[in-house]
Amino acid sequence: MSDYGKIGAFKAPNKTMSMVVLTMALVYNVIFGFIRNPAETDNTLSWLGYDYPHGFLMWGVLTAAAFFLNIIYLYKKFGYPGRVGTAFAIAAIFFMPGVVFINDWGWEQTAHLIATLIFIALNSIAILMFFIHNYKKHIKYRITTFLVILILAGMITVQFTLGKSGLLELVPLWLALVLLFISNFTSFYPVYPCETAKAQKKKNIKTARKLACTLGIFGAHNLYMNRIYKGVGQLVMSITGIFLCLIPVIGMGYVNDIAGGDAKICLAAGVSLLSGAAVWAARDVFRLKRLESFDVSE
């Protein structure tokens, strides 16, 4: 396999796996979306998830897997290094539990909405970055970039003017999955020679240090530098820590009314994980600063 068949130390998924999961996700999304009339305002995915939690869980697993595998495969196929996009695609996975498990009233509904918006934003940006990168190479990329931005802007506008509806959520989701299918498994978009292996491996120490200072506990700097396993490790620690700290406040799906000693245990575990992630990030900041001063590229 050529160098661009991997995203850093992370081996990109193969074509068959990506196609199978994407097809399953698209079919399931269409059928699940039409359990009730999606044109009605109270038949959003959130409402379906509230009434059919196990079906909603299946939807979450397939949708998250389809986006992740096919975004990574998209980068592989076209030789796009996409370190930030890769980081976003990985990060999106960790917000899906908040979408499917936190779906109740009050604080839980707010947490569900935030997790949903972040999941959509991360995957949308990861896809959009690829098309923006190829914007000047062919008119098909330019048209697609314009359409993606138009759909996202239209979805946001309608959301805040006309209110929620099932179709408002489902149609952009279906279009995104179809776009990934066309990009990955047809010859519609032309493939251009990828960057050299040397260019792909070049690290921007200064940018990584800034990321470590601001988003270090989430592993942003390691994901940026293609240290996928370290970055994912920090991301898992921080996201898990935040969820554990919030469990006594918002609950998680079927786990509610946590109080007393159990709440303190959750809080202790959460703060412990966040402390570990913070120390890890601080160490990386000093290490990157030292590398920058010596002008060393790993």
Automatic annotation (TrEMBL):
GO terms for cellular component: membrane. The keyword Transmembrane helix applies. Pfam families: TM2 (PF05154). Its main location: membrane. Keywords: Membrane, Transmembrane, Transmembrane helix. It is found in: Membrane. The keyword Transmembrane helix applies. InterPro entries: TM2. It comes from the Bacteria. Residues 202-244 form the TM2 domain. This is COX15/CtaA family protein.
